[in-house]
Amino acid sequence: MGYKVSFEEANKIFAALQDEYEIWAPKRFVGKGRYSDTDMIKYDKINTVEEIEYMDKSDFPAKEVLSPITESLFYFTEDEYIESKATGKKLLIFMRPCDIHAQHHQEKIYLSNGGFEDMYYKRMNEKVKIVMMECTTGWDTCFCVSMGTNKSEDYSMAVRFGEGELSLDVKDGAFAPYFEGKNESGFKPEYVEKNQLTVEVPEIPNKEVLTKLKNHPMWNEYNKRCISCGACTVACSTCTCFTTTDIIYNENANVGERKRTTASCQVKGFSDMAGGMSFRNTAGDRMRFKVLHKFHDYKERFQDYHMCVGCGRCIDRCPEYISIAATVKKMANAIDEIVAEENK
Ligand code: SF4
Ligand code: SF4
């Protein structure tokens, strides 16, 4: 059922929803951007519709609500440990279509990878209801249409932000009582149909080509350009890697807490192992790993979609102006070159 409500009416609905839900949405933090006089847009709890930043793309994705950059897993003493507590409320999260697709990828990694369920992710994921933010134009670094993530029907409510009013498509009956007596409308969300940026993901025809691609000189370019800062993966809608650290509270080393923190395959030392072994020693090696993971390995493993949802946040965040879209194009050229060489 479609509705049209003023911001004032929406804020009353938000207030009523907050008995049961935490409401999360992209929010602008003025002056907190990485350069002087720039803002940062990231997910935060909101109380009113005016707090939602819907005009610009958020710098960081919706995944941060479910898997924050850092979180406590459990607290320990000499002889016991206590699990950290999750929020007692349900989570109502405003997301764009690409973030909804990204959440499905996260579910695969956290909940069905090798038969293992991550209980910390699961306990948050079970609470989620989605409000899809209509996205009809995208930005210059988006390539969601190429990745098939520009549309989604998987939402409880969809919303369009107008001048002082919201148009909503309410599909989930749990939310219908909040809209009783409100103006009805025939609203249905529209979607981006064309991005400025397009990416054609190449097929890797066989293992021989894949092996040659891994050793192709194209990756050497990144030894100079990529500074291995990891900013691209922290901002990525679909990256899930983390590391754990024990924080010791005082001189008694048996009392403290275990935290998990986002990790990056782009940072030197990520693949270090006991005995001093390391698999990916150069920035080029690490770039190859990331790009193949997003545009080949994940799909090969789960047999459905590529992992990248085309949100373009990694392109926006990279201080070295490295574009994953351009890298995929270079990879396609390298594959063509390898296949042509094989067919000679
Ligand atoms: S690789 Fe880049 S474009 Fe793809 S999902 Fe991650 S941040 Fe978005
Ligand atoms: S690609 Fe860019 S953002 Fe990612 S690690 Fe390299 S320099 Fe940092």
What does this protein structure show overall?
- Keywords: Iron, Iron-sulfur, Metal-binding.
- It is a single chain.
- With about 350 residues, the chain is an alpha+beta fold.
- It folds into two domains: about 1-65 and about 85-185, no CATH class; about 205-240 and about 270-340, no CATH class.
- The chain has helices spanning about 5-15, 65, 95-110, 120-125, 145, 205-215, 220-225, 230-235, 285-300, 315, 325-340; strands spanning about 1-5, 20-30, 40-45, 70-75, 80-85, 90-95, 130-135, 155-160, 165-170, 185, 240-250, 255-260.
- An eight-stranded mixed beta sheet has the order 3-2-6-7-8-9-1-10. A four-stranded antiparallel beta sheet has the order 5-4-12-11, with no helix packed on it.
- The longest helix has 20 residues, at about 285-300.
- One iron/sulfur cluster (SF4) binds near residues 237, 294 and 312.
- One iron/sulfur cluster binds near residues 227 and 228.
